[in-house]
Amino acid sequence: MIESLAGNDRAYRVLLQESGKRLHAYYSRRLVETAITDDLVQETLLAIHTRRSTYDPARPFTAWLHAIARYKLIDFLRNQRHRRTVSFEEAPEEALIFEEGDPSAQLDLTQILEMLSPRTRELIRAVKIEGRSIAEVSTASGLSESAIKVAMHRAMARLSKKFGRDVP
Amino acid sequence: MSELPAKTSDLIDQLVTDLRPESRSRLLRSISLGVLSGAVVSGIVVGSLWGVRPDMAAALHTSTFWIKEFFVLSLAIVGFFIALKMARPDGQARGFIFLAIVIVLGLGTLAVLQLASAPTELWKRLIMGNTSAVCPWLILLLAIPIMLGLIWAMRRMAPTRLQFAGVAAGLTAGALSALIYSVSCDESTMPFIFIWYGGAIAVMAMIGAFVGPRVLRW
């Protein structure tokens, strides 16, 4: 980064590529939709570029990069929350966010799902967590698509009521 | 990790061609420029509307004058450094925040001591002075140009804790504005300065906390 600030474009290209990979890993771990991940990676790369003067050469580059990545993620999620007026069926799936490998999030999720009936739990798991489409689940389980939608809608409504806010 | 998507690679190509050497002091210069241009505007307003306090020559020999100046100047400097730190995405400002608290507590202690050593009948005079009705308002008014300058500068930087960055901007603007105003204000009791100067600066910091997340987004 110090080389890049001095105007070394070779070093800068390597830096951006490496940052791009790191950012991709960072965002894809936290978001489900790849299109959004790609957008965020690009937006963050752009921010690195336009705001590169805020990098302090005395501090580690990764800390700086991570702070920007985190800011962009939070900013995105916040926007997302304000805009969430789409209907349930159209609601983007990436809203269910938790860090993979974060044991407390896993535990929370398991506990929450315990509150549902076994059949609904399986549906939610398949669609919301494993990210399978309703059509796939329909063929696998033998239930009609509309039955699955209704069951999931009810379950999500129950959970939202239970936990207060916009669990999508 | 495999290769990046084509769109991302294109973007990187563009950014690399756009690279120009960047001066290391750019952040410091931007923030200073924002603060100074605001301060010049406020200074001109004070100079042309009220001028220097009439008893300035005598005041220079009093300790209260210098305590007052030290209070607002040191807060302004500390605020400026917090703002500098907050303009970076990974900036930490714990040491400076601690300093700011020490300064405020120091003046608060002096104010309490002065009240404690004065007869109760004098308290109202010590606290309210002659100008308590206008002083905090004028400090707030004079802080506006400095605040705008700071916001202008910070928007081009990369604050990630916007509320806190706003507080830093408000603290700097409020304290510097108080410093400028203090040249024409002849109040010099500790309780007055603590409550009305300190109050105006605190309100400015709160305004900063409110506007920060709204105007500093990037």
Please give the structural blueprint.
The complex is a heterodimer of chains A (168) and B (218).
Chain A: H1 2-5, H2 9-30, H3 34-50, H4 61-83, H5 103-114, H6 118-129, H7 134-141, H8 145-163
Helix pairs in contact in A: 2-3, 2-4, 3-4
Chain B: H1 6-17, H2 26-49, H3 56-59, H4 63-86, H5 94-116, H6 120-128, H7 135-155, H8 162-182, H9 190-215
Helix pairs in contact in B: 2-7, 2-8, 4-5, 4-8, 5-9, 7-8, 7-9, 8-9
Mean pLDDT of chain B: 90
Q: Major β-sheet of chain B, in short?
A: none
Number of β-strand runs of chain A: 0
Terminal Cα span of chain B? 29 Å
**Could you tell me the radius of gyration of chain B in angstroms?**
21 Å
Element-by-element helix/strand order of chain A: HHHHHHHH
Question: Class of the largest domain in chain A in CATH?
Answer: Mainly Alpha
CATH architecture of the largest domain in chain A: Orthogonal Bundle
Largest sheet of chain A: none
Low-confidence stretches of chain B: none
Q: What is the count of β-strands of chain B?
A: 0
The proportion of residues forming helix of chain A, as a percent range, comes to 55-70%
Report helical residue fraction of chain B: over 70%
User: What overall form of chain B do the CA principal axes indicate?
Assistant: elongated
